[in-house]
């Protein structure tokens, strides 16, 4: 199986108590996830997270620690996927739907909705926010 790394970013607005989510086009269907996507060759997890959020939402972010790591074997695709979920904070930009072929919609949603839409995360997004003691992420460079 081919190893595939995927990053997601949990962006939570404490003032409105809402989570930023994107609706991904999946052929004839769609589903909502946190902003994110595949890590490109030669790219760090952090770089991928920043790039994916910018591409999918228009926002510039800074990345905090990792709040979840999840992996799955996808035999249909022949992938061993590892998903890294970072905390993120918006530092600039403005919401824009620049990739309509991939992203159908961008929404700020309440925690109950985010939990329903992100069933793959045990305990949902709320669980990630409750345990905000994130793991430190650091790219050590090439050694």
TrEMBL record:
Q: Report the residue ranges that make up the Nudix hydrolase domain in this protein.
A: 2-131
Pfam families linked to this entry: NUDIX
Taxonomic superkingdom: Bacteria
The cofactor required is:
Mg(2+)
Q: Which UniProt keywords apply?
A: Hydrolase, Magnesium
**Which GO molecular-function terms appear in the entry?**
hydrolase activity
Q: Which InterPro entries match?
A: Nudix_hydrolase, NUDIX_hydrolase-like_dom_sf, NUDIX_hydrolase_CS, NUDIX_hydrolase_dom
What family is it from?
Answer: Belongs to the Nudix hydrolase family.
Which PANTHER family is this protein grouped with? GDP-MANNOSE MANNOSYL HYDROLASE (PTHR43046)
What is this protein's name?
NUDIX hydrolase
Q: Which species is this UniProt entry from?
A: Kroppenstedtia pulmonis
Q: What is the lineage of its organism?
A: Bacteria, Bacillati, Bacillota, Bacilli, Bacillales
């Amino acid at each position: 199986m081919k190893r595939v790394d995927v990053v997601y970013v949990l962006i939570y607005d404490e003032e409105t108590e809402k989570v930023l989510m994107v609706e991904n086009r999946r052929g004839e269907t769609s589903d909502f996830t946190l902003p994110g996507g595949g890590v490109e060759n030669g790219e760090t997890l952090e770089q991928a997270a920043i790039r994916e959020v910018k591409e999918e939402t228009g926002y510039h972010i800074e990345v905090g620690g990792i709040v979840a790591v999840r992996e799955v074997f996808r035999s249909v695709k022949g992938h061993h996927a590892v998903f890294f979920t970072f905390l993120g904070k918006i530092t600039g930009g403005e919401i824009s739907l620049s990739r309509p072929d991939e992203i159908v919609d961008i929404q700020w949603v309440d925690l109950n909705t985010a939990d329903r839409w992100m069933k793959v995360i045990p305990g949902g997004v709320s669980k990630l926010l409750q345990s905000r003691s994130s793991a430190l992420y650091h790219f050590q460079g090439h050694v």
